[in-house]
Write a structure and sequence with these properties.
With 217 residues, this protein is an alpha+beta fold. The protein is built from 9 helices and 8 strands. Bound molecules: adenosine-5'-diphosphate.
């Protein structure tokens, strides 16, 4: 029942109750230098939203948030920037062969493709496999010919919450997203690749939450 936006007054009331609980509305009002009737609506809202419990003849007490809510609050504050890995990038003119070598050496499943340092596409394992098993000469085929190209690339900003990245990965059934910064170049939006966020990064967060390591997140 909790998703309401708390105003400063509500937060003050919660602080007072936390400190002096159980506490009657009269005393809460005194702490705030207000009348009881002035805070009645606020107290009702805090009870309705599940933040406070009103015990008859005892007073108000804080309802501690559930474990699920605490986990959700923790996750909401983690940004893509906190989790991202460094990007693996090739130029659109690089050959499919060289891109396969890069994928092996860097041990990633998705490579960003750029032209003049701005994102123009991505390639995955399957894109490269498809090209490799065809009859084409992958030494002479530029990766730009087989990539998934802009504007079809699903991107994420470094400031986005990590849950948004997870949602995009699941909804689009892909493994990773380029983490990008927007630049306006001659009236056009271009994207500079500053990282990569994959299923692996998000799984690592899960492991880290269960088994925190010193110097981890
Ligand atoms: P795999 O090839 O290992 O199955 P994916 O599931 O990530 O890897 O890729 C499936 C397809 O989606 C490929 O054609 C790839 O180019 C494309 N793709 C991968 N990542 C993205 C992305 N962030 N945005 C748009 N398309 C993507």
């Amino acid at each position: 029942m909790r998703p309401i936006e708390l105003k400063n007054r509500h937060k003050e009331i919660l602080e007072i109750v936390k400190k002096y609980q159980p506490i009657a509305s009269e005393q809460i009002a005194q702490h705030l230098k207000l009348t009881r009737s002035a805070i009645r609506a606020d107290l009702n809202l805090l009870v309705m939203s599940g933040h406070l419990e009103a015990r008859p003849k005892v007073g108000y007490c804080v309802v501690e948030s559930s474990t699920r809510e605490r986990v959700a609050d923790y996750l909401k504050n983690i940004r893509v920037n906190d989790l991202k890995s460094r990007p693996v990038v090739v130029d659109e003119k690089a050959s499919v062969y060289d891109t396969i070598v890069t994928m092996f050496l860097e041990d990633v499943g998705m490579i960003c493709v750029t032209a003049e340092d701005y994102l123009v596409g991505v390639v995955s394992r399957k894109d490269l496999l498809k090209a490799a098993i065809g009859r084409t000469d992958i030494n002479n085929m530029p990766v730009g010919m087989i990539m998934t190209r802009m504007p079809n690339v699903i991107l994420i900003s470094p400031n986005a919450p990590v849950s948004e990245a997870a949602r995009k990965i699941i909804d689009r059934q892909i493994d990773a997203l380029p983490v990008v910064e927007e630049h306006m170049i001659q009236g056009q939006t271009r994207y500079k690749v500053i990282g990569r966020i994959s299923k692996t990064n998000i799984t690592k967060l899960f492991v880290e939450m269960i088994n925190p390591m010193v110097g981890g997140l």
